[in-house]
Amino acid sequence: MQMTNSILIPAWINGTLQPVEKLDVHKRGLKHKAVSIFVMNQGRILLQQRALHKYHTPGLWANTCCTHPMWEETSEDCAPRRLNDELEIKGLDCALRGQIEYQAKVGDDMLEHEVVDVFVAHAPDDLQLTLNPDEVCSTRWITPRDLQLELAENPQNFTPWLHIYMTKHFDTILGSK
Fold first, then answer.
1. 88 noted as active-site residue
2. Fold of 8-169
């Protein structure tokens, strides 16, 4: 199991945003800030398979990058930092597409209750990836239509938030703007 190294993320306690240890946030089901990024190329989404030792949803497929801003870090700074940390993707323009709030069980009595700033970035054809094995074990490109079909046929292979994004917020995230 991966250790969280006492990373403090912004979470609401009694209506006030406070720094709280990441694992504690998930165990307590606290509402907290998050960032999700969809990297696109020629109409396809870059998916990542979460590392097998992650403390929740290990080995499941998710959108390109999902994370939490550190305490006092903006979402706009967090998105490119985490693309670099997880996949060594640099220099993409991350465009904010909207904010989504959701709740989902993620195993071991943990709950994600996230207020997510969702970004979309467009990658060049020659995008090179280097996977951080602490975060990602595989990646693949997929069209939104094929992803929706796979989500319906094999829902157990995907993170709960990807289901929510693709079924309830597709137009906000991937619709034309």
1. no
2. Nucleoside Triphosphate Pyrophosphohydrolase (3.90.79)
